[in-house]
Design brief:
Strand order of the largest sheet of chain A: 2-3-1-4
Number of helices of chain A: 3
Radius of gyration of chain A: 15 Å
Oligomer: homotetramer
Shape of chain A: globular
Strand content of chain A: 25-35%
Largest interface: A-D, 34 and 35 residues
Chain lengths: ~100, ~100, ~100, ~100
Protein backbone atom coordinates (compact mmCIF):
# COMPACT_ATOMS: atom_id res chain seq x y z
CA UNK A 1 0.00 0.00 0.00
CA UNK A 2 1.46 3.32 -1.17
CA UNK A 3 1.61 6.05 1.47
CA UNK A 4 2.04 9.80 1.13
CA UNK A 5 2.96 11.33 4.48
CA UNK A 6 3.79 14.66 6.07
CA UNK A 7 5.90 14.30 9.21
CA UNK A 8 6.27 17.02 11.83
CA UNK A 9 8.45 15.78 14.68
CA UNK A 10 8.81 17.95 17.80
CA UNK A 11 11.47 17.05 20.37
CA UNK A 12 10.61 18.09 23.94
CA UNK A 13 12.96 18.76 26.82
CA UNK A 14 15.89 19.90 24.69
CA UNK A 15 15.30 23.63 24.60
CA UNK A 16 14.28 25.72 21.64
CA UNK A 17 16.80 24.79 18.97
CA UNK A 18 15.05 21.96 17.20
CA UNK A 19 16.90 22.00 13.88
CA UNK A 20 19.61 19.45 14.84
CA UNK A 21 16.86 16.95 15.55
CA UNK A 22 14.85 17.75 12.44
CA UNK A 23 18.08 17.31 10.46
CA UNK A 24 18.77 13.96 12.12
CA UNK A 25 15.32 12.74 11.12
CA UNK A 26 15.86 14.01 7.56
CA UNK A 27 18.98 11.88 7.36
CA UNK A 28 17.12 8.81 8.56
CA UNK A 29 14.38 9.37 5.97
CA UNK A 30 16.93 9.97 3.20
CA UNK A 31 18.90 6.85 4.12
CA UNK A 32 15.64 4.91 3.83
CA UNK A 33 15.44 6.05 0.22
CA UNK A 34 12.34 8.15 0.82
CA UNK A 35 13.67 11.37 -0.79
CA UNK A 36 12.24 13.61 1.96
CA UNK A 37 11.05 17.06 0.94
CA UNK A 38 11.60 19.46 3.80
CA UNK A 39 9.12 22.33 4.11
CA UNK A 40 8.69 25.03 6.70
CA UNK A 41 6.49 22.96 9.00
CA UNK A 42 7.37 19.35 8.32
CA UNK A 43 8.70 16.90 5.77
CA UNK A 44 6.80 15.23 2.94
CA UNK A 45 7.67 11.67 1.94
CA UNK A 46 6.10 8.95 -0.16
CA UNK A 47 6.70 5.24 -0.44
CA UNK A 48 5.49 1.87 0.69
CA UNK A 49 3.51 2.08 3.95
CA UNK A 50 5.83 -0.28 5.81
CA UNK A 51 8.98 1.47 4.66
CA UNK A 52 7.73 4.94 5.58
CA UNK A 53 6.52 3.78 8.98
CA UNK A 54 9.73 1.89 9.69
CA UNK A 55 11.74 5.02 8.88
CA UNK A 56 9.52 7.13 11.13
CA UNK A 57 10.11 4.71 13.98
CA UNK A 58 13.85 4.98 13.39
CA UNK A 59 13.50 8.79 13.59
CA UNK A 60 11.98 8.49 17.04
CA UNK A 61 14.66 5.99 18.08
CA UNK A 62 17.47 8.17 16.70
CA UNK A 63 16.25 11.26 18.52
CA UNK A 64 15.83 9.41 21.79
CA UNK A 65 19.38 8.06 21.30
CA UNK A 66 20.54 11.69 20.91
CA UNK A 67 19.16 12.41 24.36
CA UNK A 68 15.66 13.65 23.55
CA UNK A 69 13.50 12.46 26.45
CA UNK A 70 10.10 13.05 24.85
CA UNK A 71 8.81 13.48 21.29
CA UNK A 72 5.48 14.72 19.94
CA UNK A 73 4.91 13.99 16.26
CA UNK A 74 2.10 15.11 14.01
CA UNK A 75 1.53 12.99 10.93
CA UNK A 76 -0.71 13.44 7.93
CA UNK A 77 -1.20 10.19 6.03
CA UNK A 78 -2.82 9.61 2.68
CA UNK A 79 -3.63 6.31 0.97
CA UNK A 80 -5.77 5.66 -2.08
CA UNK A 81 -6.65 2.54 -4.04
CA UNK A 82 -8.69 3.92 -6.94
CA UNK A 83 -5.59 4.92 -8.89
CA UNK A 84 -1.89 5.64 -8.59
CA UNK A 85 -1.02 8.87 -6.84
CA UNK A 86 2.15 10.77 -6.12
CA UNK A 87 3.22 14.00 -4.49
CA UNK A 88 4.21 15.42 -7.88
CA UNK A 89 0.81 14.60 -9.31
CA UNK A 90 -0.95 16.25 -6.36
CA UNK A 91 1.11 19.41 -6.76
CA UNK A 92 0.67 19.50 -10.55
CA UNK A 93 -3.07 19.17 -10.19
CA UNK A 94 -3.37 22.17 -7.87
CA UNK A 95 -0.96 24.26 -9.92
CA UNK A 96 -2.91 23.59 -13.09
CA UNK A 97 -6.06 24.96 -11.41
CA UNK A 98 -4.08 28.01 -10.36
CA UNK A 99 -3.08 28.59 -13.98
CA UNK A 100 0.60 28.19 -13.16
CA UNK B 1 8.87 1.62 22.61
CA UNK B 2 5.59 2.70 24.20
CA UNK B 3 3.38 4.88 22.01
CA UNK B 4 0.45 7.12 22.91
CA UNK B 5 -1.49 8.05 19.78
CA UNK B 6 -4.52 10.02 18.68
CA UNK B 7 -5.97 8.77 15.39
CA UNK B 8 -8.33 10.80 13.22
CA UNK B 9 -9.18 8.87 10.07
CA UNK B 10 -11.17 10.58 7.32
CA UNK B 11 -12.57 8.50 4.46
CA UNK B 12 -12.93 10.38 1.17
CA UNK B 13 -15.24 9.63 -1.72
CA UNK B 14 -17.98 8.03 0.35
CA UNK B 15 -20.19 11.01 1.06
CA UNK B 16 -20.76 12.71 4.38
CA UNK B 17 -21.71 9.87 6.69
CA UNK B 18 -18.36 8.86 8.12
CA UNK B 19 -19.47 7.07 11.28
CA UNK B 20 -19.65 3.55 9.75
CA UNK B 21 -15.98 3.88 8.84
CA UNK B 22 -14.94 5.35 12.17
CA UNK B 23 -16.77 2.47 13.85
CA UNK B 24 -15.00 -0.09 11.63
CA UNK B 25 -11.65 1.35 12.67
CA UNK B 26 -12.69 1.29 16.34
CA UNK B 27 -13.38 -2.42 16.00
CA UNK B 28 -9.97 -3.03 14.45
CA UNK B 29 -8.28 -1.13 17.27
CA UNK B 30 -10.32 -2.94 19.92
CA UNK B 31 -9.56 -6.34 18.41
CA UNK B 32 -5.88 -5.42 18.58
CA UNK B 33 -6.30 -5.07 22.35
CA UNK B 34 -5.64 -1.34 22.28
CA UNK B 35 -8.73 -0.29 24.29
CA UNK B 36 -9.48 2.68 22.02
CA UNK B 37 -11.01 5.77 23.63
CA UNK B 38 -13.28 7.48 21.17
CA UNK B 39 -13.57 11.26 21.46
CA UNK B 40 -15.35 13.84 19.35
CA UNK B 41 -12.47 14.32 16.91
CA UNK B 42 -10.50 11.10 16.96
CA UNK B 43 -9.56 8.06 19.02
CA UNK B 44 -6.85 7.81 21.66
CA UNK B 45 -4.89 4.57 22.03
CA UNK B 46 -1.72 3.48 23.77
CA UNK B 47 0.50 0.44 23.42
CA UNK B 48 3.64 -0.86 21.86
CA UNK B 49 4.70 1.20 18.82
CA UNK B 50 4.59 -1.79 16.46
CA UNK B 51 1.20 -2.98 17.67
CA UNK B 52 -0.43 0.45 17.39
CA UNK B 53 1.02 1.03 13.94
CA UNK B 54 0.05 -2.44 12.72
CA UNK B 55 -3.53 -1.81 13.88
CA UNK B 56 -3.59 1.57 12.16
CA UNK B 57 -2.49 -0.07 8.91
CA UNK B 58 -5.29 -2.62 9.30
CA UNK B 59 -7.74 0.29 9.73
CA UNK B 60 -6.69 1.70 6.37
CA UNK B 61 -6.88 -1.77 4.78
CA UNK B 62 -10.30 -2.46 6.31
CA UNK B 63 -11.75 0.84 5.08
CA UNK B 64 -10.37 0.36 1.57
CA UNK B 65 -11.89 -3.16 1.62
CA UNK B 66 -15.25 -1.54 2.51
CA UNK B 67 -14.98 0.49 -0.69
CA UNK B 68 -13.35 3.67 0.52
CA UNK B 69 -11.16 4.84 -2.38
CA UNK B 70 -9.07 7.39 -0.48
CA UNK B 71 -8.24 8.05 3.17
CA UNK B 72 -6.68 11.05 4.92
CA UNK B 73 -5.52 10.36 8.46
CA UNK B 74 -4.18 12.77 11.05
CA UNK B 75 -2.07 11.22 13.78
CA UNK B 76 -0.61 12.65 16.97
CA UNK B 77 2.14 10.44 18.35
CA UNK B 78 3.93 10.67 21.67
CA UNK B 79 6.92 8.68 22.89
CA UNK B 80 9.10 9.25 25.93
CA UNK B 81 12.04 7.42 27.42
CA UNK B 82 12.70 9.36 30.65
CA UNK B 83 9.92 7.56 32.52
CA UNK B 84 6.80 5.49 32.09
CA UNK B 85 3.79 7.38 30.81
CA UNK B 86 0.15 6.57 30.20
CA UNK B 87 -2.98 8.30 29.02
CA UNK B 88 -4.46 8.05 32.51
CA UNK B 89 -1.36 9.68 34.02
CA UNK B 90 -1.50 12.51 31.49
CA UNK B 91 -5.15 13.18 32.24
CA UNK B 92 -4.66 12.96 36.01
CA UNK B 93 -1.80 15.43 35.86
CA UNK B 94 -3.86 18.07 34.05
CA UNK B 95 -6.91 17.49 36.24
CA UNK B 96 -4.85 17.91 39.39
CA UNK B 97 -3.70 21.33 38.15
CA UNK B 98 -7.33 22.22 37.45
CA UNK B 99 -8.19 21.34 41.05
CA UNK B 100 -10.55 18.59 39.97
CA UNK C 1 -20.25 29.44 11.28
CA UNK C 2 -20.23 26.63 13.82
CA UNK C 3 -16.85 25.07 14.50
CA UNK C 4 -15.91 21.77 16.11
CA UNK C 5 -12.23 21.76 17.04
CA UNK C 6 -9.61 19.57 18.67
CA UNK C 7 -6.75 21.57 20.18
CA UNK C 8 -3.38 20.09 21.07
CA UNK C 9 -1.08 22.79 22.39
CA UNK C 10 2.59 21.96 23.05
CA UNK C 11 4.74 24.45 24.96
CA UNK C 12 8.44 24.35 24.04
CA UNK C 13 11.40 25.45 26.12
CA UNK C 14 9.81 24.74 29.50
CA UNK C 15 10.97 21.19 30.10
CA UNK C 16 8.85 18.07 30.16
CA UNK C 17 6.06 18.91 32.57
CA UNK C 18 3.41 20.28 30.26
CA UNK C 19 0.32 19.84 32.40
CA UNK C 20 0.39 23.30 34.05
CA UNK C 21 0.20 24.83 30.57
CA UNK C 22 -2.48 22.48 29.32
CA UNK C 23 -4.48 23.33 32.45
CA UNK C 24 -4.01 27.07 31.87
CA UNK C 25 -5.40 26.69 28.37
CA UNK C 26 -8.32 24.62 29.68
CA UNK C 27 -9.20 27.49 31.99
CA UNK C 28 -9.10 29.98 29.12
CA UNK C 29 -11.37 27.76 27.04
CA UNK C 30 -13.76 27.21 29.96
CA UNK C 31 -13.93 30.93 30.74
CA UNK C 32 -14.86 31.47 27.10
CA UNK C 33 -17.91 29.29 27.67
CA UNK C 34 -16.66 26.57 25.35
CA UNK C 35 -17.08 23.65 27.79
CA UNK C 36 -13.77 22.04 26.81
CA UNK C 37 -13.58 18.26 26.88
CA UNK C 38 -10.09 17.19 27.81
CA UNK C 39 -8.86 13.91 26.33
CA UNK C 40 -5.51 12.17 26.46
CA UNK C 41 -4.05 14.00 23.46
CA UNK C 42 -5.90 17.29 23.24
CA UNK C 43 -9.10 19.11 24.04
CA UNK C 44 -12.35 19.09 22.07
CA UNK C 45 -14.45 22.24 21.90
CA UNK C 46 -17.37 23.48 19.82
CA UNK C 47 -18.85 26.90 19.27
CA UNK C 48 -18.94 29.83 16.95
CA UNK C 49 -15.81 30.01 14.74
CA UNK C 50 -14.83 33.45 15.98
CA UNK C 51 -15.30 32.60 19.65
CA UNK C 52 -13.28 29.38 19.42
CA UNK C 53 -10.49 31.07 17.51
CA UNK C 54 -10.40 34.05 19.88
CA UNK C 55 -10.10 31.68 22.84
CA UNK C 56 -7.31 29.75 21.12
CA UNK C 57 -5.41 32.98 20.61
CA UNK C 58 -5.85 33.80 24.29
CA UNK C 59 -4.40 30.37 25.12
CA UNK C 60 -1.24 31.20 23.17
CA UNK C 61 -1.08 34.64 24.80
CA UNK C 62 -1.64 33.21 28.29
CA UNK C 63 1.11 30.61 27.88
CA UNK C 64 3.57 33.14 26.53
CA UNK C 65 2.69 35.37 29.51
CA UNK C 66 3.54 32.40 31.79
CA UNK C 67 7.01 32.39 30.29
CA UNK C 68 6.65 29.87 27.47
CA UNK C 69 8.96 31.10 24.71
CA UNK C 70 7.61 28.95 21.89
CA UNK C 71 4.40 27.03 21.24
CA UNK C 72 3.50 24.39 18.65
CA UNK C 73 -0.22 23.70 18.33
CA UNK C 74 -2.00 21.08 16.28
CA UNK C 75 -5.61 21.82 15.45
CA UNK C 76 -8.32 19.72 13.83
CA UNK C 77 -11.19 21.87 12.60
CA UNK C 78 -14.57 20.80 11.28
CA UNK C 79 -17.28 22.93 9.71
CA UNK C 80 -20.40 21.85 7.85
CA UNK C 81 -23.29 23.71 6.28
CA UNK C 82 -25.59 20.90 5.14
CA UNK C 83 -27.06 20.44 8.60
CA UNK C 84 -26.49 21.13 12.26
CA UNK C 85 -23.75 19.11 13.88
CA UNK C 86 -22.42 18.68 17.38
CA UNK C 87 -19.79 16.68 19.21
CA UNK C 88 -22.51 14.69 20.98
CA UNK C 89 -24.16 13.85 17.68
CA UNK C 90 -20.84 12.71 16.19
CA UNK C 91 -20.15 10.46 19.17
CA UNK C 92 -23.70 9.05 19.24
CA UNK C 93 -23.51 8.20 15.55
CA UNK C 94 -20.31 6.16 15.93
CA UNK C 95 -21.52 4.47 19.12
CA UNK C 96 -24.76 3.42 17.44
CA UNK C 97 -22.75 1.69 14.70
CA UNK C 98 -20.71 -0.04 17.40
CA UNK C 99 -23.93 -1.36 18.95
CA UNK C 100 -23.28 0.50 22.19
CA UNK D 1 1.69 38.02 17.44
CA UNK D 2 3.51 36.47 14.48
CA UNK D 3 2.15 33.09 13.34
CA UNK D 4 3.72 30.41 11.18
CA UNK D 5 1.06 27.96 10.02
CA UNK D 6 0.65 24.86 7.90
CA UNK D 7 -2.87 24.45 6.55
CA UNK D 8 -4.28 21.19 5.21
CA UNK D 9 -7.89 21.64 4.18
CA UNK D 10 -9.93 18.59 3.16
CA UNK D 11 -13.34 19.09 1.54
CA UNK D 12 -15.83 16.27 2.18
CA UNK D 13 -18.82 15.28 0.11
CA UNK D 14 -17.41 16.44 -3.23
CA UNK D 15 -15.78 13.27 -4.46
CA UNK D 16 -12.09 12.60 -4.86
CA UNK D 17 -10.85 15.53 -6.91
CA UNK D 18 -9.81 17.98 -4.24
CA UNK D 19 -7.44 20.20 -6.23
CA UNK D 20 -10.07 22.78 -7.32
CA UNK D 21 -10.77 23.43 -3.65
CA UNK D 22 -7.14 23.51 -2.61
CA UNK D 23 -6.53 25.99 -5.43
CA UNK D 24 -9.46 28.16 -4.29
CA UNK D 25 -7.98 28.32 -0.79
CA UNK D 26 -4.54 29.17 -2.24
CA UNK D 27 -6.12 32.13 -4.01
CA UNK D 28 -7.74 33.33 -0.80
CA UNK D 29 -4.43 33.08 1.05
CA UNK D 30 -2.55 34.84 -1.75
CA UNK D 31 -5.11 37.64 -1.92
CA UNK D 32 -4.60 38.12 1.81
CA UNK D 33 -0.94 38.83 1.09
CA UNK D 34 0.26 35.71 2.88
CA UNK D 35 2.47 34.37 0.04
CA UNK D 36 1.32 30.77 0.54
CA UNK D 37 3.84 28.01 -0.14
CA UNK D 38 2.07 24.96 -1.45
CA UNK D 39 3.61 21.60 -0.58
CA UNK D 40 2.46 18.06 -1.20
CA UNK D 41 0.34 17.83 1.95
CA UNK D 42 -0.65 21.37 2.80
CA UNK D 43 0.26 25.02 2.49
CA UNK D 44 2.70 26.97 4.65
CA UNK D 45 1.99 30.61 5.46
CA UNK D 46 3.30 33.20 7.89
CA UNK D 47 1.97 36.52 9.07
CA UNK D 48 0.11 38.26 11.82
CA UNK D 49 -2.07 35.82 13.82
CA UNK D 50 -5.28 37.70 13.08
CA UNK D 51 -4.58 38.01 9.36
CA UNK D 52 -3.72 34.34 8.94
CA UNK D 53 -6.75 33.23 10.90
CA UNK D 54 -9.08 35.61 9.03
CA UNK D 55 -7.81 34.21 5.73
CA UNK D 56 -8.31 30.65 6.93
CA UNK D 57 -11.89 31.48 7.84
CA UNK D 58 -12.41 32.92 4.37
CA UNK D 59 -11.06 29.65 2.90
CA UNK D 60 -13.76 27.71 4.74
CA UNK D 61 -16.40 30.22 3.67
CA UNK D 62 -15.22 30.17 0.04
CA UNK D 63 -15.30 26.38 -0.14
CA UNK D 64 -18.75 26.19 1.43
CA UNK D 65 -19.89 28.81 -1.11
CA UNK D 66 -18.54 26.53 -3.87
CA UNK D 67 -20.89 23.83 -2.62
CA UNK D 68 -18.67 21.90 -0.22
CA UNK D 69 -21.00 20.69 2.54
CA UNK D 70 -18.33 19.70 5.07
CA UNK D 71 -14.67 20.54 5.63
CA UNK D 72 -12.00 18.93 7.82
CA UNK D 73 -8.88 21.02 8.28
CA UNK D 74 -5.63 20.14 9.99
CA UNK D 75 -3.55 23.07 11.17
CA UNK D 76 -0.07 23.29 12.60
CA UNK D 77 0.54 26.60 14.36
CA UNK D 78 3.76 28.03 15.71
CA UNK D 79 4.28 31.16 17.77
CA UNK D 80 7.36 32.32 19.63
CA UNK D 81 8.19 35.39 21.67
CA UNK D 82 11.87 34.89 22.50
CA UNK D 83 13.00 36.15 19.12
CA UNK D 84 11.88 36.82 15.56
CA UNK D 85 11.28 33.74 13.47
CA UNK D 86 10.41 33.06 9.85
CA UNK D 87 9.84 30.12 7.58
CA UNK D 88 13.05 30.91 5.70
CA UNK D 89 15.04 30.99 8.94
CA UNK D 90 13.57 27.63 10.00
CA UNK D 91 14.48 26.05 6.67
CA UNK D 92 17.97 27.58 6.61
CA UNK D 93 18.68 26.30 10.10
CA UNK D 94 17.84 22.69 9.21
CA UNK D 95 19.68 22.85 5.88
CA UNK D 96 22.81 24.14 7.58
CA UNK D 97 22.78 21.11 9.88
CA UNK D 98 22.39 18.89 6.81
CA UNK D 99 25.47 20.50 5.30
CA UNK D 100 23.49 21.82 2.34
Amino acid sequence: MKLIADISIIPLGVGLSLSPYVAACEKVLAEAGLAPRLHANGTDVEGDWDEVMAALKRCHEALHAMGVPRIATNLRLGTRVDRESSMDAKLASVREKLGE
